[in-house]
Amino acid sequence: MEAILDFSVELDVGLFDRVVQTFYSGRGAEQINAGKTLQQFQEQPDAWRRVNPIMQQSSISESKILALGILDQLIKSMWKVLPPEERDGIKNYIVQVIIDLSSTDQALITNRRLLAKLNLTLVQILKQEWPHNWPSFIPEIVSSSKQNLALCENNMIILKLLSEEIFDFSAEQMTQAKTKNLKNQMCNEFSEIFQLCFEILQTAQKPSLVAATLETLLRFLNWIPLGYIFQTNLIELLVTRFLKETLTRNTTLKCLTEIGGLQVGPDYNEKFAYLFTTAMPVLAGLIPPQTNIMQAYHDASDDDQQLIQNVGMFLTSFLGAHLRVVEDLVASQPTVTVKEMLFGAHQYILQISRVQDRELFKVCLEYWQKLVSELYEEQSALPQMDMPLLALNPGMVSRTQFPPTVALRKALYAETLSQLRVIMIERMVKPEEVLVVENDEGEIVREMLKESDTIVLYKSMREVLVYLTHLDVEDTERIMSEKLSKQMDESEWSFENLNKLCWAVGSISGAMNEDMEKKFLVSVIKDLLCLCELKRGKDNKACVASNIMYIVGQYPRFLKAHWKFLKTVVNKLFEFMHELHEGVQDMACDTFIKIAQKCRRHFVVQQNGEILPFIEEILSNIEGITIDLAPAQIHVFFEAIGYMISAQPAKPAQERLISMLMRQPNEAWGVIMLEAQGNADVLNDADKIKILGNILKSNVAACTSIGAPFMSQIGHLYHDLLAVYKAVSELISQQVAAEGEIATKKPRVRGFRTVKREILKLMETYISKADDLPLVTKEMIPPLLETVLGDYARNVEPAKDAEVLNTMASIVARLGEYIQDKIPLILEAVFECTLNMINKNFEEYPEHRVGFFRLLQAINQSCFPALLNMPAHQFRLFLDSVVWAFKHTMRDISEMGLNIILELLNNFSKTDASISNAFYQAYFMSILQDVLFVLTNGFQKSGFKFQSMILLHLFEQVDSGKITVPLFDPAQVPNPNATNQEYVRNYVMDLLQNAFPHLQRTQTQQFVVGLFELNKDYMAFKAHLRDFLVTLKEFSGDELSNELFIDEREAEAKRKAEAEREAALRIPGMIKPSDR
């Protein structure tokens, strides 16, 4: 088998075939060995020279496909360095093989897999050779297509692939200049291609050729000049000849979808109107209007399912772009035909929206979002007329009125929108807040994982329902009330139906006016409470309970305005906290915390008819309320009460409430502390340690929501906390001394470590929220550092807690200049010992890695002067650590490292020239080399944004002359009088040339010149780097190559999200209460 790796003799193609067959058909060790051998074969620099004998002599297509893969790699990475005669030889050989294998219909069928690979290889050659070295390619392929129908069919596939490479996949595989050149060339020579395609579509009778041509045309439609579409009879040809044919209807619909989605101004409105009015009758023939599409889709073949999908894509794309064109046609033609077509088109989309296919539903949903938002914008832009007489009769619902002469577009869609409301309710997906769901077996259980796709879909559906409510609030209320009635009379009762209805009710919070919302919500909750009483069985009750909790959590505006109802709801939540059915208690606690956040002030003031604020009533009965809750649920409860306490403005009252909240945990804490004074062995009791852990977690939860006023509780516990920390640390040390490092994995020691971590978390939480920073620095920090740092330094590696690093990072970030003098102490305790834990590989101690670099980042950001005071060897270690971080394989670590370097460079650029010059003289060249390494190595592409920003800074500093000391040792260079610019230019040239010998010298020179010329413009600089990386071919064909564009996509997504939020804030109910 290994004989195929001997490149000193001719290849035994028969043996090669057997190795390939073993890899594809063998089993066990033999198959693995074959795979390794083939991998080594492909990695040989001269492997491409074996392609010709394999292609000519091999008897199996798998060998030939593998050989073409080797050739592809050569074309992508080494093509330009091959001698011209070898390039021509390879090109002519590939063309000839393609012609030989595609000259007859039988050959096309027999060699389909191999031809597919050959076609791709030819396109890779075209990207390198066309048009400059192969200007006759387009005339040649057009000419050969007219001589042979089988060849023509394969040529269509080649043209399709070429179009995809240039117009769809070029961004990450070719430089900007090359892409632009190829696009221009393709457009310039397109007339010949189009004439060929058009001629085939008009005259060809061969079905497979027509299908291939339509597929090729489909790839052209998103970029060809508009004249080819609208100034020929292409649309007519597609609709009349191919739309009704079974073999071509799906590809034709895709072509019409591309055309219908074009937005090109009013010049071609007539053509779009013609497309709609001619296509609709054909669609009615393909799918009769009376068809139950949901059922038909379920029973259909793959091809028929694709038809329904493509009809949905065509109608939503066309109407999304040209609905106004059709509406104008309806207005200008008194006959009902076009109006019926428009109604029929929306009926199709409504029916397709019912199909149980999530991706298809998303397509329809996107169109409904566009339609209802436009109708709402039109309605909200009109002057509104107040109807004050309605206000005199409280029994009448106030409705927004519009001037009687105004004809709103929504009138045209009234029936469609009413049907859409029903569909949106019946297809509503689960919101994020719902924890109780129906599983595949029909049981009601707690959901363990949240589906991000469902959350995004819910957001879109919620948006549509809010618009629909604004467009006709009475119809929305009528439909929801009728559906709830059918739950009550059990004609539509099911977990799923009730869930969807209640999720829909919760989703329109804020979309009604307050009076209508009150009437509607009271009715809904009343019916649901009644349903909860009527239903038997825990599953049924749990389902109704979860829906009650979800809905009340969505209507804080109503709760704030109706104290009695708010109190009733909260008391009902307390009842649910005793319900042991899976998930109900979790949801009760989550709803309670949501209400506490939104209505916090109402709990701490004395309401009318009450003898004391409700929070006092809750706190006096806290044990009774929480007795059945699990510890994690109690912590959520404590956090919720903390939000209420934070709303109490009077400090003495606030401290009294904190004392009431923490009374039970403090009593339990006091009992254990008292026992420990008399018997130090108490802390060896696992149950006691568990209790301590839960007490501390309750404190963390309360502190999280109360914030700075929690000082009264922290002050009460502080010395005990540090004493417990020391005590459990000592116990851990004893266990490790007795049993070795394995002790750190045992339950007892893990319990001790939980206590330590929670103490640290409590300190971190409080200090991050404290408002008197000088007091914290003076009173809390010295004993805390003394207790924590020494323990961390002394512990064996497995017993060092990452939480120490996170706590130190938070303290440094929060206290900043106040703690500057303590930085040497912190670093002395944690720096080198942690570095020794994480620098052996990239895998061990992942939490320590994150905490370590968080601390370095906090010091750099908040205490930079402390870095300047470091001893030289320690600063070198600091810098080496950061460089090691940005070479890390974990993305969050590498990005943190890059971020620290960037901030460090910016900090030094703001210091005195003598300091910055000394820094650059010592470290500039090593940083430059290391950043260039990660930029070009192909494994840290996700850091491209920060890498480019660092390089921009470095080259700008050199180019502008801000660095006034030499960056080199004059005794070590040929030209001691060289400027920094000259030295860096030559250094980078040599570095890249040695690293990438296949690059031509002119390419490297061009790149380095750009680094100096473009460093004032970040976008141009980044594009220049990206082009260079593409030329390296390190990034071609790599699934990670899109990382080079990640920051553009993230920035665009951020801009879009901000614009959407701004627009949504102007629409009542569009932003969820929890997000406001």
What does this structure look like?
- It is a single chain.
- The chain is mainly alpha-helical and 1076 residues long.
- The protein has 52 helices and two strands.
- Among the domains are: 83-223; 226-356; 911-1038.
- Strands 1-2 form a two-stranded antiparallel sheet.
- Helix 14 packs parallel to helix 16 (269-286), helix 20 packs parallel to helix 23 and helix 24 packs antiparallel against helix 25 (495-507).
- The longest helix is centred in the N-terminal third of the chain and has 31 residues, at 302-332.
- GO terms for molecular function: nuclear export signal receptor activity; small GTPase binding.
- Keywords: Nucleus, Protein transport, Transport.
- It is found in: Nucleus.
Describe the secondary-structure layout.
Layout: H1 13-25, H2 28-43, H3 51-57, H4 61-78, H5 84-101, H6 105-110, H7 112-129, H8 137-145, H9 149-168, H10 176-188, H11 190-203, H12 207-220, H13 227-230, H14 234-242, H15 249-260, H16 269-286, H17 293-299, H18 302-332, H19 337-353, H20 358-381, H21 388-392, H22 414-426, E1 436-438, E2 444-446, H23 452-471, H24 473-488, H25 495-507, H26 514-534, H27 538-554, H28 556-561, H29 563-576, H30 584-598, H31 600-604, H32 614-620, H33 622-626, H34 631-646, H35 651-661, H36 663-678, H37 686-706, H38 711-739, H39 747-769, H40 773-794, H41 802-815, H42 823-838, H43 846-862, H44 864-868, H45 872-886, H46 891-909, H47 913-936, H48 944-959, H49 980-995, H50 1001-1013, H51 1018-1032, H52 1046-1065
Antiparallel strand pairs: 1-2
Helix pairs in contact: 1-2, 3-4, 4-7, 5-7, 7-9, 8-9, 9-12, 11-12, 12-15, 14-15, 14-16, 15-18, 16-18, 18-19, 18-20, 19-20, 19-22, 20-23, 22-23, 22-24, 23-24, 24-25, 24-26, 25-27, 26-27, 27-30, 29-30, 30-34, 34-35, 34-37, 36-37, 37-39, 38-39, 38-40, 39-41, 40-42, 41-43, 42-43, 43-46, 45-46, ...
